[in-house]
Amino acid sequence: MSEPLSEVLPQVPSEVSSEFSSEPYGGSFARRAAELDAADELAGLRAQFVLDDAVYLDGNSLGALPRSVPGRVEDVVRRQWGALRIRSWDESGWWTAPERIGDRIAPLVGAAAGQIVVGDSTSVNVFKAVVGAVRLANGPGGEREADAGRPGPVRDEILVDATTFPTDGYIAASAARLTGCTLRPVAPDEVPDALSGRTAAVLLNHVDYRTGRLYDLPSLTAAVHAAGAVSVWDLCHSAGALPVGLDEHGVDLAVGCTYKYLNGGPGSPAYLYVRREHQHRFDSPLPGWNSHADPFGMTPDYAPAPGALRGRVGTPDILSMLALEAALEVWDDVSIEAVRAKSLALTDFFLECVDAYVPEGAVESVTPSVHAERGSQVALRCAGAGQVMRRLIERGVVGDFREPDVLRFGFTPLYVGFGDVERAAGVLARLL
Ligand SMILES: *Cc1c(COP(=O)(O)O)cnc(C)c1O
Prior knowledge:
Helices cover 35% and strands 13% of the residues. The protein has helices spanning 5-8, 18-21, 28-39, 68-83, 88-91, 97-105, 122-138, 166-179, 191-194, 217-226, 318-327, 336-357, 385-394, 418-431, and strands at 49-50, 55-56, 65-66, 116-118, 157-161, 182-186, 199-205, 230-234, 253-256, 271-274, 363-365, 377-382, 397-398, 400-402, 406-410. A seven-stranded mixed beta sheet has the order 4-10-9-8-7-5-6, with helices on both faces. It has a four-stranded antiparallel beta sheet with strand order 11-12-15-14, with helices on one face. A two-stranded antiparallel ribbon has the order 1-3. α12 packs parallel to α14 (418-431). The two termini are 44 Å apart.
């Protein structure tokens, strides 16, 4: 790193020419976009990100780079690691970073301090949470007596969102095999009917990664509790985009990534929420030395640390973790309610522009029109979607394609404006 990182970042040339950004329908939508941008109280935040003229609608896959990050990473590498070396575990706060950064994420997902640890990938945290949930649901001594029929847990079924992001399903299947449970995929709407006295854990996505559908976390969590089961929510597509209310709605366990709407950077560590009242009974299937009550005691026997710390495993990935910490500073004066209000206004406006600009029948939105069921993305079904997305990206409108026929556009209210939305719809219309 001989030059500051900020000077070696690629400058992507924008191919959004005036030809594509001109308003095709008399300019009324472009005028409205300008008015909405002028009234937008979050508009100033865009300057805190490294962006160019492209319309970046892929922040639900990889959030843009906050300007504070390159300098922080350079300091962590050069000074904390290079000069302080081992002293940084204490002096630079490396050792306590997982819980400190967890407490920074907590207000964004409606959690009081002391319930979130950052570390590992979402996939690994899904594993900890689902196995932990089955153990919580069955409790100490919750296994059947060997002579009471089949050995194994009394609550021996795990329900998983049938439309889940694949990794959650794969991990849940393995967790089921390891705990002697059966895995039952069910559509989230059908979870209340599928619950029974056999249900141990229910793993759900707050927002569907493909369609952008937002599920009713309060009522589904209440249904899971009424059946005596334990809820596990995956917040990958909701944290940083809308209020979650983990504490308020009684969620038991939750996981999420930090590289989507939280802008932590590629592969930045994920997080695990363990509700305070469950912490003393949370029995992690990955009890590494970092979650030991006395990690430097180096004892042969495991004793879990108190609190959310028992969700830790091994040595934290400090470089990514501290890049994430810098990225989260963007949120210092931002309320998640304001972000949600702007997110809904952006997706409403996009749907309106698409409706007005795009030829009838060329695309079909699979994102719910009802606000209560919409995350912060719009997914449009479209013939030849893969090719259409490639051409959109060539023209400076960056979304992504999801099999089999979905154009996915993510709206990050911290840096996407209404003018971007109008331009994206205009370019899409010209392509189709
Ligand atoms: C993005 C995403 C993941 C990613 O998992 P990783 O382990 O970080 O690769 C998991 N689940 C959902 C629902 C996601 O949207």
